[in-house]
Design goal:
single chain; alpha+beta; 2 helices
């Protein structure tokens, strides 16, 4: 799966740290390739809100 999403390649054995936002229909809504572990939680929450994804109930 990592190869299918392009985070692992033949030239790079260590996967890239990317965040994929995937809609209910299975389509990729956005890919964030500039992930920073220290702030990604807040970034992900803001991105989901901007994409119009409903919060869990």
């Amino acid at each position: 799966m990592a190869r299918a999403y392009g985070v692992v390649t033949d030239k790079r054995a260590v996967p890239f740290r990317w965040t994929f936002y995937i809609g209910k229909d299975g389509k990729i809504l956005k890919v964030d390739r500039k992930v920073k572990a220290a702030t990604d939680g807040a970034t992900a929450a803001a991105t989901l809100k901007a994409l119009g994804v409903e919060a869990a109930k």
